[in-house]
Design goal:
Elements (H helix, E strand, L loop, with lengths): L8 E5 L25 H6 L1 H18 L6 H8 L4 E6 L5 H5 L4 E3 L2 E8 L5 E3 H11 L36 E5 L8 H16 L3 E5 L6 H12 L4 E4 L12 E3 L3 H8 L3
Parallel strand pairs: 1-2, 1-7, 2-3, 7-8, 8-9
Antiparallel strand pairs: 4-5, 4-6
Helix pairs in contact: 6-7
């Protein structure tokens, strides 16, 4: 068994952790290239929001039923030895598996926020309202995308729900492309990286290609400070040159093998 495996970890997870739960990823070996809607596009017009919600309503009706897999349960069962758990995923599966104090770097799809008054509600409440406004919409056969929407061209007949508090614009409580992770959350993650270094823990990246700076910056900070960096991912990552240990394999397969299961 590897030495790093027996030490304390600060974990950073990406989409490759949730693929075993049936949620596709953006940049894995089998991923189909696509361009999600940006925040700027979302706020630019009612038509864009209609297109987004029409697809996202279908997507959540599928993603919302996903269950945690071996990796989620493994981390929940071993959380007492973790310095922290940062996830780039928005599916909420770490919490569903029982992990506490997860840093949802990019937010959570199971929450919805009003852009005009800031009111936050559960996604299921909005789904119920959208079902009532658009009967039969979720009966369509579609392909799920990594960010919780689907492939669908004609969205012109979809009715969008408004905020019940102010009639404003609703948006899933996640960081869209073109948005920034809130600064306090970033600072908290850097604090966890610093703590990992002080306590002799390893930064363990599971299932992330580290293509976006929101995750890569923590790997760079750890490497700069001399903290051991371990990357487990199927396929190349942007942090490979910073890794002390690099395992090119599936996350669940690696965890099972190293734990002797």
């Amino acid at each position: 068994m590897s030495d790093w495996f027996d030490r304390r970890w600060l974990v950073l997870t990406g989409a490759g952790v949730s693929t075993d739960s049936g949620i596709p990823d953006y940049r894995g070996p089998d991923a189909v290239p696509r361009q999600p809607m940006t925040y700027q596009e979302f706020i630019a017009s009612e038509r864009n929001r209609q297109r987004y919600w029409a697809r996202a309503h279908l997507g959540w009706s599928r993603m919302g039923t996903a269950e945690p897999n071996y990796t989620h349960h493994f981390l929940a069962e071993h959380q007492d030895r973790l310095v922290g758990l940062i996830t780039q995923n928005v599916d909420g599966l770490h919490e569903k598996a029982g992990s506490r104090e997860v840093v949802d770097l990019h937010g959570r799809l199971d929450r919805v926020v009003c852009l005009d008054c800031g009111n936050v509600v559960g996604r299921d409440e909005v789904q119920d309202r959208l079902d009532a406004l658009n009967p039969g919409w979720t009966d369509q056969d579609v392909t799920l995308n990594p960010d919780g929407d689907v492939e669908l061209d004609d969205t012109s007949g979809f009715a969008v729900a408004e905020c019940t508090q102010c009639g404003g614009r609703l948006k899933p409580d996640v960081v869209f492309f073109g948005e920034s992770v809130p600064k306090p959350k970033v600072a908290h993650c850097f604090d966890l990286v610093d703590r990992a270094g002080r306590e002799g823990a390893a930064l363990v990246v599971l299932g992330s290609s580290l293509q976006v700076m929101s995750g890569l910056r923590f790997v760079r900070r750890a490497a700069k400070d001399g903290t051991e960096v371990v990357i487990v991912n199927r396929g190349a990552t942007r942090g490979d040159d910073l890794a002390d240990v690099r395992i090119d394999d599936g996350v669940a397969e690696t965890l099972r093998r190293l734990s002797g299961e």
